[in-house]
Fold this sequence. Notes:
Elements: H1 2-40, E1 43-44, H2 50-54, E2 67-69, E3 76-80, E4 87-88, E5 102-104, E6 109-112, E7 126-128, E8 133-134, E9 150-152, E10 159-161, E11 174-176, E12 181-184, E13 198-200, E14 205-208, E15 222-224, E16 229-233, E17 247-249, E18 254-258, E19 271-273, E20 278-281, E21 295-297, E22 302-306, E23 319-321, E24 326-330, E25 343-345, E26 350-354, E27 368-370, E28 375-378, E29 392-394, E30 399-403, E31 416-418, E32 423-425, H3 433-436, E33 444-446, E34 469-471, E35 478-480, E36 493-495, E37 500-502, E38 517-519, E39 541-543, E40 550-551, E41 565-567, E42 572-573, E43 589-591, E44 598-599, E45 613-615, E46 620-621
Parallel strand pairs: 3-5, 4-6, 5-7, 6-8, 7-9, 9-11, 10-12, 11-13, 12-14, 13-15, 14-16, 15-17, 16-18, 17-19, 18-20, 19-21, 20-22, 21-23, 22-24, 23-25, 24-26, 25-27, 26-28, 27-29, 28-30, 29-31, 30-32, 31-33, 33-34, 34-36, 35-37, 36-38, 38-39, 39-41, 40-42, 41-43, 43-45, 44-46
Antiparallel strand pairs: 1-4, 2-3
Amino acid sequence: MGRSCNLLFALALLILLHHHSSMATFTNIRTDEAVLLAFKSHISFGPNNILARNWSSSWPVCSWIGIICGSRHNRVTTLDISSMQLHGTIPPHLGNLSFLVSLDINNNTFHGELPEELARLKRLKLIDTTSNNFTGVIPSFLSLLPDIRYVSLSRNQFFGKIPSSLSNITKLEVLRLHTNFLEGEIPGELGNLRYLTSLYLQQNQLTGSIPPSIFNITSMQEIVLTSNNLTGKLPITICDHLPNLEGLYLSNNNLDGSIPSNTGKCKKLQVLSLSVNEFIGTIPRELANLTALTNLYLGILHLEGEVPAELGNLKKLQELSLSRNEFTGSVPTSILNMSELQFLVLDENKLSGHLLSDLDRGMPNLEELYCGLNNLSGFISASISNSSRLRILDLAGNSFTGPIPESLGDLEHLELLNLGGNNFSSDSALSFLTPLTNCRKLRELILSQNPLGGFFPESVGNFSYSLQIFEAHSCKLKGVIPKEIGNLTGVTKLNLFNNELTGHIPNNVQGMLHLQQFYLQSNRIKGTIPDAMCILKNLGGLGLSGNQLSGTVTPCLGNVTTLRYLYLDNNRLNSTLPASLGGLQDVIVFNASSNLLTGEIPQEIGNLKAATLIDMSKNEFFGTIPSTLEV
């Protein structure tokens, strides 16, 4: 009997404890529910109103959108309402989610300051408020969260200094504070974060030098300090303690001195970005030891000397930028054999030698080549079409010679071709143009300042709608402008000035409805200004100076109110000046000098209030100058 009583007592006690535990769990989840409903009351919902419908006492909290509960305690452990177009503030109640491990509210429009009560979230491992409108200083309570591994407060409006107390978050692995308004120096104490793998502080207003301690964190994989106002030199031992570094981004600062040769010890480095700083000296040959490197950016610096041939050992390199330095000598053949290279940027240096005749040897993946404004020479090999992925080819401002190969028309991905400012030649039919019309993605074609000396073929009208810019000024072009030019309906800029073109302006130009700039100065164009010009309602610049145009200044030009620059000077125009030109109230330059214009100057010309230059000299006007034009 006694034994039975004991068993019954134990069973009753077990049931009672289970009931008490269940009630406690129920009470605690009710606490979480109350917190989240309080949070909901601080939110203005986006167009979908997802949370407004779903976060309701009618549903179990753990089934709400963005909520995950732990299986052990049945408490809210994850709050993820990222990218839900939510607007509002973060209430202090959120600090009562005592089991919360992950808080992700990124990509919304929350504003205000983060409440200090979040310091109660002792289990928190992740906080992500990226891409909101939070303000204030970086919260000091972050240093009170012992388990936090991931902190991202990027793309907000935080200001002030980076608190050195962040170094107390001893387990921190990722720190993202970029794209805010932070100022002051980077705290050297951050070097104490021995588990840190990623440091993102770019696009702030940070000053001072980079603390050497940052380069002693052996776990570090990415250091991103781009677009600040950092100064000073890089330590000569920069890579002695960075065996895991994969990305070093320091561009757009004011760092100076030499690039440390020690950088070659960061064996896992994939991206090295040092562009737009004040570095001097030469490229360290030790960079060739970075065999994992895929991207090397050394543009807009003060580097000199020759480009090291050893860089050709970087077999994984995809992007190489050396633009706007003072490099001399030829481009090493080893670089032109880098089969993985996609982007090669060499413009604005003092490079010489023959580049393009070697280009096709080993660059099947090349997509963009910039080598303008150097001293390069030679010719374009017809086999350039072997670089079949080429999208941008910019060779402007060099001394290239020879014919423009028709094989350029085989580059089906070509978007920009800039051959301006060289010594390229062509046959009289400009035969290279016809194959180029096969490049249906071509947006910009620049041939200016080459002694081409041919006649426009009718096929010029076969370029696709993609073509937006066509420049062929100063090319000694002859003959008439073909009427097919009107088929270039996507062109916004057409520059043909300083050639030897004859004939009339074809009426078909009225088909170029997107045209914004049309320059024909210094040719031998005859006839009248066609009324078809007045249909071009997007025209901002019209240059007809230095031709042999005669007849009237067509009155309908006054209806092209988009005009900002109108050059009619040095022709044989012999009419009166139409009063309708007074309608060009936004024109900045109006030049009708050196013609045979007669009559009185219309009072309406005084309406050109925005003009900085009005020149009607050397004509046959008579009468008084309109008072509206007098200074």
